[in-house]
Amino acid sequence: MADLLSADEVTSALADLDGWSGDTSAISRTLTAPSFPAAIRLVVEVAEAAEDADHHPDIDIRWRTVTFTLSTHSEGGVTGKDISLARRIDELAEAHAATNP
């Protein structure tokens, strides 16, 4: 089990995450990839990282635009697992030249 983060903890974490927003219920980031295939490659790599972490984001794909939403559903909100996966998504986005819209 993971502990829910307080509003202050979520706000502090979001300050260190580029392009992420949200509250104690969920955090999200929308990225634009250079092409549709690049967006799909990013999603595949995030899926692999999520599987390794046993923590899975909600993913919305619209052409080159991908939105990742993170929440620890079993706990009812944002936990450290979500912040860790957000950091990993940021690393993968940078590697794929995906940017904030």
TrEMBL record:
<dbReference type="GO" id="GO:0008124">
    <property type="term" value="F:4-alpha-hydroxytetrahydrobiopterin dehydratase activity"/>
</dbReference>
<comment type="similarity">
    <text>Belongs to the pterin-4-alpha-carbinolamine dehydratase family.</text>
</comment>
<dbReference type="Pfam" id="PF01329">
    <property type="entry name" value="Pterin_4a"/>
</dbReference>
<keyword id="KW-0456">Lyase</keyword>
<dbReference type="InterPro" id="IPR001533">
    <property type="entry name" value="Pterin_deHydtase"/>
</dbReference>
<dbReference type="InterPro" id="IPR036428">
    <property type="entry name" value="PCD_sf"/>
</dbReference>
<protein>
    <recommendedName>
        <fullName>Putative pterin-4-alpha-carbinolamine dehydratase</fullName>
        <ecNumber>4.2.1.96</ecNumber>
    </recommendedName>
</protein>
